[in-house]
Design a protein that fits this description.
By secondary structure, the protein is an alpha/beta fold. The chain folds into 3 domains: 149 residues, 3-Layer(aba) Sandwich (Rossmann fold); 207 residues, 3-Layer(aba) Sandwich (Rossmann fold), CATH 3.40.50.1980; 33 residues. Helices cover 47% and strands 16% of the residues. It contains 18 helices and 14 strands. The strands form 3 sheets. Strands 1-11-10-9-12-13 form a 6-stranded parallel β-sheet, sandwiched between helices. A 5-stranded parallel β-sheet has the order 6-5-4-7-8, with helices on both faces. The chain has a 3-stranded antiparallel β-sheet with strand order 2-3-14, with no helix packed on it. The longest helix is centred in the first third of the chain and has 19 residues. It is globular, with a radius of gyration of 25 Å.
Length: 435
């Protein structure tokens, strides 16, 4: 399934080089399809959204059923197991506690001459939260509801609109409705894919236009977000899920394999990488992958991902492994080494970092607290996890006193004249003349 490579071999070097340059956009056909969908929704509104929803998801969907009703949300609680509800509430509490620390405050400073400068922090007015359907609604992604919706709530976004594809019968899984209600989301539309993103970006007769769109999705969702970016803010351009494990000779091959499989089961394009200082750990991990694969409900998906994109590289030492990991800039980085905190300071680029054998990436997906919407495809070099700041905007504050303007006027005029912007210089000169 995966043949371990040496980092010093030609094939190993080529593989690392390719991984470090893996960013890619959707193929031209996908871009063309999405562009047409956006144009249709923009020009035809509800009619286009309903047409796409009927064609791809719920054949009998009616316009007056597009928004989840209060009765549906009330009934959802009777359909969700108490144990699941308890887990949702635990996850909500942990995510809320973590993200509260991210909230930024407005601030001002005053100079001796009376000048006041500062920053005014305000939330955007509205946000669209996209939640994938999850195998036609069979596997409700409640964690996506919480991870998208909670930071927006903490930021103070007044209007949070959730979009999720319906099942064939036009329903939304009750667990999604419960998770939304638990965090105060009551406006939910049963539509998905690129037409849902287009509706959020431009608005329709039924679906409101928003300022920020966040949430994971397939290549059509990702491409739609890319095409509307600029008109609205988006969280990130995301690709398939990724994990990179750095393991020393003492690491558990069973745990390494289990965590590689946890990513591989997401998608046939998921990326699972192991960088280890031990050839024995590399070999034993391959054996563990074969042993554990038949135990999975998504065995074929995971097997395809590992066969097509799985990577195991044997490195000279942990420092080399960290250097390679920094070059790859992975979404999830696991440090399965004897002293993981000693390596933490050497990590430059990663979406989220998991330290030690008792910190599987799955903790971060659900209940640890940090957000699981993370940069992929090497964009951890320049991007951060989704957070409260995703839903905030900042305005600069500038207030000059008479004395301050007199003192700074020569410098303002000198720089303005140097740049050939004489009206800028005159805007100061006019005031000086009136003093």
């Amino acid at each position: 399934m995966i043949t371990p490579l040496k980092s010093t071999s030609q094939e190993g070097r080529q593989k690392i080089t390719a991984l470090a340059d893996r960013f890619q956009l959707a193929d031209p056909k996908c871009r063309e399809i999405v562009s047409d969908i956006i144009a249709q929704v923009r020009s035809r509104g509800d009619e286009a959204v309903l047409e796409y929803t009927r064609r791809f998801d719920a054949p009998e969907m009616a316009l007056d059923s597009l928004r989840a009703s209060q009765a549906e949300m009330d009934a959802a609680y009777d359909q969700v197991d108490d144990a699941i509800l308890a887990s949702i509430r635990l996850a909500k509490e942990r995510i809320w506690q973590f993200h509260q620390r991210e909230m930024e405050e407005s601030w001002m400073v005053t100079r001796e001459d009376g000048t006041i400068t500062g920053r005014l922090v305000r939330p955007v007015a509205s946000a669209g939260l996209y939640v994938p359907g999850g195998q036609g609604g069979k596997t409700p992604l409640v964690s996506s509801v919480l991870m998208n919706g909670i930071p927006a709530a903490i930021a103070g976004v007044q209007k949070r609109v959730m979009m999720t594809p319906p099942g064939a019968d036009g329903s939304v899984h009750p667990a999604l409705l419960v998770a939304a209600r638990e965090i105060g989301i009551t406006e939910i539309y049963k539509t998905g894919s690129a037409w849902a993103i287009a509706a959020l970006a431009f608005g329709t007769e039924t679906i409101p236009r928003v300022d920020v769109i966040v949430g994971p999705g397939n290549q059509f969702v990702a491409e739609a977000k890319r095409q509307v970016m600029g008109r609205v803010r988006i969280d990130m351009l995301a690709g398939p899920s990724e994990v990179l494990i750095i393991a020393d000779a003492g690491a558990s091959p069973a745990s390494c394999a289990a965590d590689m499989l946890a990513q591989a089961e997401h998608d046939p394009q998921a990326l699972a990488i192991l960088l280890t200082t031990s050839a024995q750990v590399a070999e034993d991990t391959v054996a563990e992958l074969e042993r554990q694969l038949p135990l999975l409900s998504r065995e074929e998906i995971a097997r395809t991902a590992l066969a097509q994109r799985g990577v195991i590289v044997v490195c000279a030492d942990v420092d080399e492994a960290v250097a390679l990991a920094n070059a790859i800039a992975i979404e999830h980085l696991e440090l399965m080494v004897a002293e993981p905190f000693l390596l933490l300071g050497k990590v430059a680029h990663a979406g989220a970092i998991f330290l030690g054998n008792y910190s599987p990436e799955a903790c971060g997906d659900y209940v640890a607290g940090p957000n699981h919407v993370l940069p992929t495809m090497g964009t951890a070099r320049i991007s951060s996890a989704l957070g409260v700041e995703t839903f905030l905007k900042k305005s600069s504050i500038i207030a000059y006193s008479k004395e301050a303007l007199l003192a700074d006027a020569p410098h303002i005029q000198a720089l303005a004249n140097l740049e050939g912007l004489t009206a800028h210089a005159r805007s100061v000169a006019v005031r000086l003349a009136e003093m």
